[in-house]
Amino acid sequence: MGKETHILVSGGGIAGNAVALQLVRAGIRTTVVERAGAPRPGGQAVDLRGASREVAERMGLMPGIRDRQLDERGMVYVDRRGRAYARMPADLFGGNGPVADVEITRGDLNEVLLEALGATGGAADYRYGEWIEALTRHDDGVEVRFASGRVETYDLVVGADGVHSATRRLAFGPEERFSTYLGGYTSYFTVPRPDGLEPGWMTMRPASRAVVGLRPDRDPATAKALVILRVPADPALRGDVVAQQQLLRELLADAGWLAPYILEAMPQAPDFYFDELARVDMPNLSAGRIVLSGDAGYCGSPLSGMGTAMALIGAYVLAGELAAAPSDPETALTRYETVLTPLLEQAKQLPGGGLPMMLPATGIGRLLSRTAARIVCARPLRPLTTRMASGAGDCAVPSYPGDATVSSPAP
Ligand SMILES: Cc1cc2nc3c(=O)[nH]c(=O)nc-3n(C[C@H](O)[C@H](O)[C@H](O)COP(=O)(O)OP(=O)(O)OC[C@H]3O[C@@H](n4cnc5c(N)ncnc54)[C@H](O)[C@@H]3O)c2cc1C
Fold it and tell me: What is the DSSP letter of 175?
């Protein structure tokens, strides 16, 4: 690799767009292929805190993020009649709880990245409706055959094509080898904002086998619905929207609160998203000149609350290392993995014990979970809760030349 280096990024989500942005800023020729015909909308609030916020600052993304920031003041649990029984204000965990001080919807964050890419004067070559069909590794590059029939050779391929990454399958092996099912599914979609919803609060209703909630949206006329289901894995659900929506109807039938309203609005949602909760663990993030970034390489699932943060941090480190050693990708990829690995275990931890704690299987478990939520939120315990949560999400990320802001030293 060197002056004429050409890198292919597969996937135009948060990881793919962030790595492309940093590569073109470093003057590296970059092509991005995204399977969807246009940037994918959708997703609800994602958190930026600690290191990911620092990285967003260094990438110069904060002005765009601030413009689109959500007004989310905290989370409230309600019962089937909509009566609040526990309330977690955003500052309860010192900014490290379920609501961070910087919240932006995933779609809006993607828009910020695409705007920043636009400001580079279209330096990256974007191809929507395109994807990789075959990869052939050579010592000094990768030959790629695309769905369109094109065949091209790149110095390096970045697989940023999400939790079900095709790049990972082609270069490392079948998904089952690296992915662990975490016991359920999650769904996000936009609905018209119902009357009576408390402004600025994420409202959650834990039912018997599902949690359903509504989060504030930037548009005051809409809200972001979220559902988390606890069910065994069913491969037939993948890609079958009718079956996915039928399952949501079944599991929310007894939920009460605004569940019937949310289910009625669901088929009209412009951005219905449904996927399994899975964790991805790779023995290595690269194989020759093919490297993984974001969920493709280290998904902790939306339950970890760190997917977007890690996508941003990982993309920043990968591009920084490649730009620092353009003629030595082997060293760059080794450095990328060395810097990232210590951060991944912490990032993949599931707060509060994951799905079994969030959605206990028995009535007594649900009662205990509800009592625990009340205790954690109780006013006399708030200073202790804040102290116990402090530090989560903090980590040292090296800085690279070209940062908009540099405030932490290289390790
Ligand atoms: C529509 C959508 C909504 C989401 N909403 C939330 C949310 O509300 N909360 C949350 O915690 N997480 C959400 N996620 C997951 C979250 O975006 C990721 O965990 C995190 O941002 C890491 O992003 P990523 O770029 O690695 O993966 P992703 O965001 O999944 O992006 C991967 C991109 O690759 C594209 N792609 C897939 N296969 C191919 C292929 N073969 N070739 C080329 N391109 C391909 C996809 O279309 C997608 O644009 C959502 C993901 C999507 C796609």
Answer: G
